[in-house]
RNA sequence: CGGGCUGUGGCGCAGUUUGGUAGCGCGCUGCGUUCGGGACGCAGAGGCCCCGGGUUCAAGUCCCGGCAGCCCGACCA
């Protein structure tokens, strides 16, 4: 049969392609209330893998998981001036419950700095209690005017870390550690998306933070996606919530706090970062299904060979799924392609007669014929090869679409289809406002070598300008 | 919240100009033939035509009023 595209090609209509993929790969759909999202089992299994990888890294960085309530007293939000101001337009507020009007309205958490701050204050008495390193996995609500599944929905899933430290240096070091060892490591090693790390401008900073660090990924259409953020909150929340401790100098001090988060938006980043016209492309280390095995014909010999291979691969710790569905071969192949499964093993009588089977990789569409006996040892190697190749490819693509420019006008031009990089002193707050008028924004500020700058006010900072999600 | 477009079986759409038995493709069910890149035949199921009013013998179609979605702009993980 002639190969026709199942998805709207990216080049034709990228947003449409994105929506097609959500449906065809069975990732998610709209919920009944505008802006809400139903995550389907396959989409959720990807999120669970993201959670597992990030959670392990958070724990390795010493933070412990806890859970704080969904409902927050409205008065809490109001205690930190910039924080309320930043969030009030997107708050969902409960005014009635139990059949009565509430004495004090309750806010559905848009983030938990405030409640957690209240309890940190309780738990922090001595410098010996510090640092206090907490994390929670939760849903949050930020009412959105223009929702896009996974990228911007009124309710989303995330992880939010909250920490308290004895001094600013320790807080800054920890936030930076999380940014590098949790977020950037996950993005690079698992998601295979090379992020631009840097700090946000005052305009783009989190409401109530003294510094916001970001990981900016480049999507298939050249737009930027903020994939994780880490904030230094200074003493702003400590002051508002009385997070104090008695130091080794026997004097009472205010803590310095941080917060950091990554959300289900990462699934959107995965889709747009690696997906192609044939569907999703999931990096092997992330993939909930790393290998799909399918029979070309439903025959006893074939079934036996599949059973053996399945057992071998599972024994090697590989996430395998055998496709035992009835449909035609072409249909089943296309389904696994849409879902982005990195490796497909096809076994048919013709292969088997020669003692071999076919291995196809999703990223390059390349197919190889391998002796049955070698399959189990070849697959793990191939998976790592694919993982590496995805990262290399993503780096090349990003570099290709990143342009060094030397004026605001050039940045406005170059930023339309990729990242524009230029000295921050040529932009500044005024230039930033000008960029905004052209649907562009300063994604982050970096040191001249790239990466998070040590001195936020250095005059040699470089900025990355792009359109963004 | 401004500008444009659209609401019709699960999905994508035609039908609306000119009112007159609700259609097509895909998907779904059954049977059979198939299966090396979205197979084919036959037989079926499935519709408050977004909602509420109005005009008319008769409304998917005309009129009034709502609501929802998509795309483009201002805000955001």
Written account of the structure:
- This protein is of the alpha+beta class.
- The chain has 3 domains: 14-274, Bira Bifunctional Protein, Domain 2 (BirA Bifunctional Protein, domain 2, 2-Layer Sandwich), CATH 3.30.930; 291-389, 3-Layer(aba) Sandwich (Rossmann fold), CATH 3.40.50; 402-466, Translation Initiation Factor IF3, CATH 3.30.110.
- Helix content is 36%, strand content 27%.
- The chain contains 14 helices and 23 strands.
- It has helices at residues 14-24, 41-60, 74-78, 81-87, 113-123, 168-191, 236-241, 265-274, 300-315, 329-338, 349-353, 372-400, 408-414, 428-437, and strands at 28-30, 37-39, 64-65, 71-73, 92-97, 100-108, 132-141, 155-165, 196-199, 211-218, 224-232, 244-246, 252-254, 256-263, 291-295, 320-323, 343-347, 356-361, 367-371, 402-404, 419-423, 441-446, 462-466.
- The radius of gyration is 25 Å and the shape is globular.
- The two termini are 38 Å apart.
- 44% of the residues are buried.
- The mean pLDDT is 93.
- The protein binds one RNA strand of 77 nucleotides through residues 1-4, 6, 15, 19, 23, 30, 34, 86, 89-90, 111, 140, 142, 144-146, 151-152, 156, 158, 206, 225-229, 261-266, 295-298, 326-335, 337, 346, 348-351, 358, 436, 439, 469.
